[in-house]
Amino acid sequence: MQGMPRVPQDRIAVLIGTKGATRKSLQKAAGCRSLFIDSETGDVDVQWGEPGSYDPLKALKLPEVIKAIGRGMAPAKAIKLLEDDWFFRLVDIKDFVGKRSNQQRRVRSRIIGSQGKIRKMIESLTGSEITIYGSTVVVVGDEEGLELAVDAVERLASGSEHGPVIKGLEKARKRQKMQSRSLEYIEEKGELQEFDALVPGLAEVAAKRASRRLKASQIDPDDEEDMASALALAEDESVTWEEE
What we know:
The chain is mainly alpha-helical.
Protein backbone atom coordinates (compact mmCIF):
# COMPACT_ATOMS: atom_id res chain seq x y z
CA MET A 1 0.00 0.00 0.00
CA GLN A 2 1.15 3.52 -0.83
CA GLY A 3 -0.30 6.46 1.06
CA MET A 4 -1.59 9.43 -0.93
CA PRO A 5 -2.24 13.05 0.17
CA ARG A 6 -5.29 13.37 2.40
CA VAL A 7 -8.30 14.99 0.73
CA PRO A 8 -10.32 17.75 2.50
CA GLN A 9 -13.80 16.75 3.65
CA ASP A 10 -15.60 18.83 1.04
CA ARG A 11 -13.59 17.20 -1.80
CA ILE A 12 -14.03 13.54 -0.84
CA ALA A 13 -17.27 13.14 -2.81
CA VAL A 14 -15.65 14.74 -5.87
CA LEU A 15 -12.71 12.31 -5.74
CA ILE A 16 -15.03 9.32 -5.41
CA GLY A 17 -17.55 10.50 -8.01
CA THR A 18 -21.08 9.31 -8.68
CA LYS A 19 -21.21 5.60 -7.84
CA GLY A 20 -17.42 5.61 -7.67
CA ALA A 21 -16.99 6.70 -11.31
CA THR A 22 -14.12 9.12 -10.68
CA ARG A 23 -12.25 6.67 -8.46
CA LYS A 24 -12.55 3.99 -11.14
CA SER A 25 -11.37 6.37 -13.87
CA LEU A 26 -8.30 7.34 -11.83
CA GLN A 27 -7.54 3.72 -11.06
CA LYS A 28 -7.71 2.78 -14.74
CA ALA A 29 -5.71 5.80 -15.95
CA ALA A 30 -2.95 5.27 -13.39
CA GLY A 31 -2.81 1.53 -13.95
CA CYS A 32 -2.95 0.67 -10.24
CA ARG A 33 -4.55 -2.47 -8.88
CA SER A 34 -6.88 -0.64 -6.48
CA LEU A 35 -7.53 2.83 -5.07
CA PHE A 36 -8.99 3.13 -1.57
CA ILE A 37 -10.68 6.34 -0.40
CA ASP A 38 -11.95 6.67 3.16
CA SER A 39 -15.23 8.57 2.82
CA GLU A 40 -15.02 9.84 6.42
CA THR A 41 -11.38 10.86 6.91
CA GLY A 42 -10.34 11.58 3.34
CA ASP A 43 -7.34 9.23 3.57
CA VAL A 44 -6.33 7.75 0.23
CA ASP A 45 -4.25 4.60 -0.35
CA VAL A 46 -3.23 2.90 -3.57
CA GLN A 47 -2.15 -0.65 -4.24
CA TRP A 48 0.12 -1.34 -7.21
CA GLY A 49 0.62 -4.61 -9.01
CA GLU A 50 3.85 -6.47 -9.63
CA PRO A 51 6.83 -4.47 -10.99
CA GLY A 52 6.45 -4.15 -14.75
CA SER A 53 2.65 -4.27 -14.62
CA TYR A 54 2.30 -0.50 -14.29
CA ASP A 55 4.06 2.68 -15.39
CA PRO A 56 6.42 3.86 -12.59
CA LEU A 57 6.16 7.47 -13.85
CA LYS A 58 2.40 7.40 -13.31
CA ALA A 59 3.01 6.00 -9.85
CA LEU A 60 5.14 9.06 -9.11
CA LYS A 61 2.56 11.44 -10.55
CA LEU A 62 -0.60 10.00 -8.98
CA PRO A 63 -0.06 11.81 -5.63
CA GLU A 64 -0.04 15.11 -7.55
CA VAL A 65 -3.32 14.16 -9.25
CA ILE A 66 -4.90 13.43 -5.87
CA LYS A 67 -3.52 16.65 -4.41
CA ALA A 68 -4.81 18.71 -7.37
CA ILE A 69 -8.31 17.28 -6.99
CA GLY A 70 -8.15 17.82 -3.23
CA ARG A 71 -7.24 21.47 -3.82
CA GLY A 72 -10.26 22.16 -6.02
CA MET A 73 -9.30 21.06 -9.53
CA ALA A 74 -11.83 19.13 -11.60
CA PRO A 75 -10.81 15.46 -11.99
CA ALA A 76 -10.95 15.67 -15.80
CA LYS A 77 -8.29 18.41 -15.69
CA ALA A 78 -6.18 16.92 -12.91
CA ILE A 79 -5.91 13.56 -14.65
CA LYS A 80 -3.86 15.22 -17.41
CA LEU A 81 -1.00 15.21 -14.91
CA LEU A 82 -0.51 11.52 -15.66
CA GLU A 83 0.77 12.51 -19.10
CA ASP A 84 4.55 12.71 -19.48
CA ASP A 85 4.65 16.39 -20.47
CA TRP A 86 2.23 17.80 -17.88
CA PHE A 87 3.41 19.05 -14.50
CA PHE A 88 2.02 20.33 -11.19
CA ARG A 89 2.77 23.39 -9.06
CA LEU A 90 1.03 24.71 -5.97
CA VAL A 91 1.28 28.37 -4.95
CA ASP A 92 0.37 29.16 -1.32
CA ILE A 93 -1.12 32.64 -0.99
CA LYS A 94 -0.12 32.67 2.70
CA ASP A 95 3.51 32.92 1.59
CA PHE A 96 2.70 36.40 0.28
CA VAL A 97 0.14 37.84 2.72
CA GLY A 98 0.31 35.60 5.76
CA LYS A 99 -2.73 34.11 7.49
CA ARG A 100 -4.93 37.20 7.29
CA SER A 101 -8.16 36.00 5.67
CA ASN A 102 -9.12 39.42 4.31
CA GLN A 103 -5.76 39.74 2.51
CA GLN A 104 -6.09 36.22 1.13
CA ARG A 105 -9.51 37.12 -0.30
CA ARG A 106 -8.02 40.24 -1.89
CA VAL A 107 -5.25 38.22 -3.59
CA ARG A 108 -7.72 35.56 -4.77
CA SER A 109 -9.84 38.29 -6.34
CA ARG A 110 -6.81 39.78 -8.10
CA ILE A 111 -5.80 36.41 -9.58
CA ILE A 112 -9.34 35.55 -10.67
CA GLY A 113 -10.31 39.00 -11.93
CA SER A 114 -13.78 40.28 -12.75
CA GLN A 115 -15.92 37.31 -13.90
CA GLY A 116 -12.76 35.18 -14.01
CA LYS A 117 -11.25 37.30 -16.79
CA ILE A 118 -7.65 37.42 -15.49
CA ARG A 119 -7.47 33.70 -14.74
CA LYS A 120 -8.85 32.87 -18.18
CA MET A 121 -6.32 35.16 -19.85
CA ILE A 122 -3.42 33.52 -18.00
CA GLU A 123 -4.73 30.07 -18.95
CA SER A 124 -5.18 31.08 -22.59
CA LEU A 125 -1.71 32.66 -22.91
CA THR A 126 0.10 29.78 -21.21
CA GLY A 127 -2.01 26.75 -22.14
CA SER A 128 -2.27 25.85 -18.45
CA GLU A 129 -5.12 25.05 -16.06
CA ILE A 130 -5.53 27.11 -12.87
CA THR A 131 -7.70 26.38 -9.83
CA ILE A 132 -7.98 28.55 -6.73
CA TYR A 133 -9.09 26.86 -3.52
CA GLY A 134 -8.86 28.47 -0.09
CA SER A 135 -5.36 29.88 0.27
CA THR A 136 -3.83 27.80 -2.54
CA VAL A 137 -3.53 28.11 -6.30
CA VAL A 138 -3.02 24.90 -8.29
CA VAL A 139 -1.42 25.22 -11.72
CA VAL A 140 -0.95 22.36 -14.18
CA GLY A 141 0.49 22.57 -17.68
CA ASP A 142 3.44 21.76 -19.90
CA GLU A 143 6.93 22.80 -18.83
CA GLU A 144 7.06 26.21 -20.54
CA GLY A 145 3.43 27.19 -19.92
CA LEU A 146 3.58 26.11 -16.28
CA GLU A 147 6.55 28.34 -15.48
CA LEU A 148 4.92 31.35 -17.18
CA ALA A 149 1.60 30.81 -15.39
CA VAL A 150 3.20 30.33 -11.96
CA ASP A 151 5.30 33.46 -12.46
CA ALA A 152 2.16 35.44 -13.37
CA VAL A 153 0.26 34.15 -10.33
CA GLU A 154 3.15 34.93 -7.98
CA ARG A 155 3.57 38.42 -9.41
CA LEU A 156 -0.12 39.15 -8.89
CA ALA A 157 0.06 37.77 -5.35
CA SER A 158 3.04 40.05 -4.73
CA GLY A 159 1.04 43.12 -5.75
CA SER A 160 1.93 43.62 -9.44
CA GLU A 161 -0.72 45.31 -11.59
CA HIS A 162 -2.74 43.26 -14.06
CA GLY A 163 -1.60 45.20 -17.13
CA PRO A 164 2.17 44.56 -16.90
CA VAL A 165 1.63 40.90 -15.94
CA ILE A 166 -0.64 40.16 -18.91
CA LYS A 167 1.57 42.17 -21.28
CA GLY A 168 4.57 40.16 -20.11
CA LEU A 169 2.74 36.91 -20.90
CA GLU A 170 1.80 38.19 -24.37
CA LYS A 171 5.43 39.04 -25.12
CA ALA A 172 6.58 35.64 -23.86
CA ARG A 173 4.00 33.90 -26.06
CA LYS A 174 5.17 35.92 -29.08
CA ARG A 175 8.78 34.87 -28.41
CA GLN A 176 7.72 31.22 -28.21
CA LYS A 177 5.92 31.49 -31.56
CA MET A 178 8.97 33.07 -33.19
CA GLN A 179 11.21 30.30 -31.83
CA SER A 180 8.75 27.70 -33.12
CA ARG A 181 8.82 29.27 -36.59
CA SER A 182 12.61 29.29 -36.53
CA LEU A 183 12.62 25.57 -35.75
CA GLU A 184 10.13 24.92 -38.55
CA TYR A 185 12.37 26.84 -40.96
CA ILE A 186 15.41 24.80 -39.92
CA GLU A 187 13.47 21.56 -40.46
CA GLU A 188 12.18 22.78 -43.82
CA LYS A 189 15.69 23.75 -44.89
CA GLY A 190 16.94 20.29 -43.98
CA GLU A 191 14.19 18.65 -46.06
CA LEU A 192 14.92 20.89 -49.05
CA GLN A 193 18.57 19.86 -49.08
CA GLU A 194 17.49 16.28 -49.78
CA PHE A 195 15.98 17.39 -53.11
CA ASP A 196 18.94 19.51 -54.20
CA ALA A 197 20.56 16.67 -56.11
CA LEU A 198 17.31 15.92 -57.96
CA VAL A 199 16.47 19.49 -59.00
CA PRO A 200 19.61 21.66 -59.02
CA GLY A 201 18.93 25.18 -57.78
CA LEU A 202 15.44 24.44 -56.43
CA ALA A 203 16.55 24.16 -52.81
CA GLU A 204 18.45 27.44 -52.96
CA VAL A 205 15.48 29.38 -54.36
CA ALA A 206 13.03 27.82 -51.89
CA ALA A 207 15.37 28.45 -48.96
CA LYS A 208 15.67 32.14 -49.90
CA ARG A 209 11.90 32.51 -50.00
CA ALA A 210 11.48 30.64 -46.73
CA SER A 211 14.07 32.94 -45.15
CA ARG A 212 12.14 36.01 -46.33
CA ARG A 213 8.90 34.57 -44.92
CA LEU A 214 10.60 33.92 -41.57
CA LYS A 215 12.01 37.45 -41.47
CA ALA A 216 8.62 38.93 -42.37
CA SER A 217 6.95 37.00 -39.54
CA GLN A 218 9.28 38.71 -37.06
CA ILE A 219 8.63 42.27 -38.27
CA ASP A 220 7.45 44.84 -35.73
CA PRO A 221 4.68 46.81 -37.54
CA ASP A 222 5.49 49.88 -35.44
CA ASP A 223 9.12 49.97 -36.64
CA GLU A 224 9.34 52.08 -39.85
CA GLU A 225 12.77 50.71 -40.82
CA ASP A 226 11.62 47.10 -40.42
CA MET A 227 8.51 47.77 -42.50
CA ALA A 228 10.51 49.48 -45.28
CA SER A 229 12.94 46.57 -45.38
CA ALA A 230 10.10 44.04 -45.52
CA LEU A 231 8.38 45.87 -48.41
CA ALA A 232 11.58 46.19 -50.48
CA LEU A 233 11.73 43.80 -53.45
CA ALA A 234 14.46 41.18 -53.63
CA GLU A 235 16.55 40.69 -56.79
CA ASP A 236 14.38 37.79 -57.94
CA GLU A 237 11.08 39.67 -57.32
CA SER A 238 9.19 42.18 -59.47
CA VAL A 239 5.83 43.89 -59.62
CA THR A 240 3.81 44.16 -62.84
CA TRP A 241 0.44 45.71 -63.54
CA GLU A 242 -1.84 46.35 -66.48
CA GLU A 243 -5.05 48.25 -67.10
CA GLU A 244 -8.23 46.32 -67.75
